[in-house]
Amino acid sequence: MLIYILMPVMAFFNSCGKGGSDGPSGTTAPSNLTIAATVATDNSGNVSFTATAQNATRYEYDFGNGVFQTSINGAISYRYPTSGNYTVKVTAKNSGTQSISASTNIVVNVAQSLIWSDEFDAPGAPNSSRWTYDLGNGSDGWGNQELQYYTNRAENVIVEGGLLKIKAIRENYNGSTFTSARLKTQGKFDFKYGKVEVRAKVPAGVGTWAAAWALGSNITTAGWPACGELDIMEHLGREENKVYGTLHYPGHSGGNANGNTRIIQNATSEFHIYSTEWTASSIKILVDGLLIHEVPNSSAIPFNHNFFLILNLAMGGNFGGPVAASVNGGTLEVDYVRVYQ
């Protein structure tokens, strides 16, 4: 066990009483606040806290990651979902309006476990217990003026050679000039917080738009962008080797999204690991372990509920741009998708 004990160096009192010792109802201000933290050594993320103060009737905990809880007797346990260095603040209050606060720093190690994956080892159609499809050209509202018609045909999506292959093809199909595929785990698997890894090779060709991303599972009731969108990877053929990592949510959607980019090498000829590390306190988007973008998470943005995963290859559209006349399609190849918590 690792035990952290803090004797407060500074205490902050709120008092309306004469001399600063009594509150408006004659209560005595809390004093002598101490905090003890016991961090489990089994990498579970469990931490037990004990706070004590004279004249306190309740203790409010800020665990340093956007989570808050209250304890009457000062004792409380909390399981951190991810490793990190956390500053834990405790505020001891009396029955009036007076309080005293103190903080302590803890180091938590959490071993993540694989909770869901697809290694794409079984040839043929993608595993129907893991994936379903968006079908059509997005005319019902979910498209971005792209040129493709999404299908579930083997010509557009197949597992072969240990890889998922999403293929865009230039062809006339149901009024569209390209076909492709868009897979999703909606209704099959969703999750709240964790690490996602997608090992993939994106296609070349001006007008291709490959993506690995996630949407809030409440999209059918909340709509977009209120549900939240987390783009783990977007790659445009017109900007080869530039990887986009982006969050969309109210006030930051479409062209005003919250994101950034990173230049890598050989995006279209080699596999890279595109990932996100998502917690209650932050959302990081990375490629090969290198940070693309980080956003502080809080209750003010819609990234604290379940999300499902999406893989797709679009052609053209508002973001993909015009498709070069010489481009007849492309293939997004995915080696695996893994989710850890």
Short description:
The chain has 341 residues and is mainly beta. The protein contains two helices and 25 strands.
Features:
341 residues, mainly beta, Immunoglobulin-like, Jelly Rolls, 2 domains, 7-stranded antiparallel β-sheet, 25 strands
Overall description:
The longest helix is centred in the middle third of the chain and has 4 residues, at 219-222. Strands 9, 11, 12, 13, 14, 16, 21, 22, 23 and 25 form a 10-stranded mixed β-sheet that branches. The protein has 2 domains: 2-108, Immunoglobulins (Immunoglobulin-like); 114-340, Jelly Rolls, CATH 2.60.120.200. The protein has 2 helices and 25 strands. 2% of the residues lie in helices and 50% in strands. The protein has helices spanning 219-222, 317-320; strands spanning 2-6, 31-39, 46-54, 58-62, 68-71, 75-79, 84-93, 99-108, 114-118, 132-133, 148-150, 157-160, 163-173, 176-180, 182-184, 194-201, 208-216, 229-236, 242-248, 258-263, 272-278, 282-287, 290-296, 307-315, 329-340. It is mainly β. Mean pLDDT is 92; it is low at 5-26.
